[in-house]
Amino acid sequence: MTTTINDLIMPKITRFICLIFLMAAGAVNVCAEEPLPEKLQKLTDEAYRLYSSRETEMYFETVKKVKDATEFSQYQETYYRACSYEAIYMFEYVDRSKGVALAHDIYHHAKTNNSNIGMYFATFTLGTIREQSGNMGLAEKSFRQALKLKKEYLPKESAAPCYLGLCETALHRKDYEAVKEFARKALEEPGIIPMNKITAWSYKCLARYNQGDSLGFEEAYKERAQLIAEHGGQGGLFGELINVYQAKNRKQWQLALQRTEKLIHQHNKCAQKASIYEHMGDYRQALYWQKRTRTVIDSIQSSEARSQMNEFDTELSITYAENETKEQELAKEQTMLWAGGTIAALVIAFLSIYGYRSNKHTKNMKIANSKLQQAYDKLEETTKAKERIESELRIAREIQRRMLPHVFPRRRDIDIYAMMTPAKEVGGDLYAYALLDDLLYFCVGDVSGKGVPAALFMAEVTRMFRTLVDGRLQPDTIATRLNHALAEDNDQGMFVTMFIGLINLKTGHMEFCNAGHNPPLLDGEFMKMESNAPIGLWPDLDYEGEVVNNMHGKTLFIYTDGINEAENANKEQFGDERLQALLQKDWGDARQTSETIHKAVEDFVGGAEPSDDLTKMCIKMK
């Protein structure tokens, strides 16, 4: 077949002419939409109001009406914005996996319709979800990418939400000046909605509170309160949280506690209660709420949601590369259209330019394809990295297993056995013992959190315990020194509850210190004792020890809360009563007793996923 000049030129010309008409009609890369009709504007305003006031059922009904009215209209910004806030609301208040799925839907809708507006909102939504999951590094990356897309395709769209997202990432790294700067930029954005104004002033409140600027906090709080009075709602994304901070700023601790009851987010409620009780000097309550905080955070950072977000992030990276290729092709075609002019009169010049542009386009395509290949390589690297991490976690689990004693003394006067089963690849529970002549040192501990951070903290605690035992110190002294060492530079707020004991095998005299740990059972009865504070949270504490005069003929069972708080498929806990009832029977030696309790818990949990490590230690004195 012979290829003519018309065969080369006419398809391109046709495409160029179509593109011109599409651009004139506003179908490609629309920068800003027309004002909404009055009825639609009212519907949109109502959706924002319901979002702020947390009226969930009504909010979802209203946002569906907004989406139905705008999906196939010229109001694409309104459509994607509604989708974005719906996904964020779902993730934050209802169901995290469904929230990620809705964000993914925005991306697929935008890609299918070749919508840069949609890509902006998909990227912003992913950033918000990552920020709410605590993955601040990737959240910042998403917010900055969204800002870039906004500047290119939506110059009249408010960048306030992106700046507010950057406020949160800066707050997380304690860069309070950056928090105030991003809040200022958000407030200066044209078209910022009232909810975002309130949120910006909320960040100003938090930055000034954390800087110890009590007066500045009150000024920012007043400005925020005035906005709430003008526009209604419950205080933007922060709700009642800033009111809790106001009470703390004024050292009104009981009022602050009352206000925590109105907090929507469980991790905020638990963390604020822990902080308030710490200020009040009630370390027992502070410990309880610290543990609750860690449990809630672990549930937020679920592996399912993380996996969904990583897949989403990879797809976005590939799409950015694909879009760059398309934009380069479009730019070339547009340049050729305007350079062509009167094609019939300048055909030779046109072909020359076309040849030149084709060569340039080929180079650009190679660059774009290279970037696309890099995105695919990133996906492959992610898969390999996941396999490598799983392998390393298996190795870490084996190392941790070897750190825990598996050989126990065989003596006529003492019978001891312990075991630990981690809920995940590695665990945060620990146990240890040391037999120095006729002195038996032992401990059981439970590190806050799970996974690798908890395992590393557990390893450090175990090592330090063994070192301190070599000095033949008393249990309360060991706890005090452990706390002093672990509380220093503990920016992550990790802690460990521990039961530390010392038995003189000749006299049967036991000295012990309970550092915020579950009370053990002695002959089937829960021991009554001073709980002390957990180890690692508050420096300069002096721990109190206690004694049992004679342990001969007695059975001591120490455990972590993974036992009594183990849940079955119906969310029912194993509980203290079941544990006590079991230990009021004689199951044989220390190993048989430990294994009986372990099997009872496993049978109770059934097919439910384990929520915490299971650790127990049994000591029987003859």
Instruction: Count helical runs.
Output: 22
Rg value: 31 Å
Shape: elongated
Category by helix and strand content: alpha+beta
Work out the strand percent: 5-15%
Question: Which strand order spans the largest sheet, edge to edge or round the barrel?
Answer: 1-10-9-6-7
Helical amount: 55-70%
**Number of beta strands:** 10
Distance between the termini: 101 Å
> Residue ranges: pLDDT <50 for 5 or more in a row?
1-32
Mean pLDDT: 80
User: What composes the largest sheet?
Assistant: 5 strands, antiparallel
Task: Describe, in plain words, how this protein is organized in 3D.
With about 625 residues, the protein is an alpha+beta fold. The protein is built from 22 helices and ten strands. It has helices at about 5-25, 40-55, 55-70, 75-95, 95-110, 115-130, 135-155, 160-170, 175-190, 195-210, 215-230, 240-250, 255-260, 265-280, 285-300, 305-340, 345-405, 450-470, 475-485, 560-565, 575-585, 590-605, and strands at about 415-420, 430-435, 440-445, 495-505, 510-515, 520, 525, 545-550, 555-560, 615-620. A hairpin with a 2-residue loop joins β6 (about 520) and β7. The longest helix is centred in the middle third of the chain and has 57 residues, at about 345-405. It is elongated, with a radius of gyration of 31 Å.
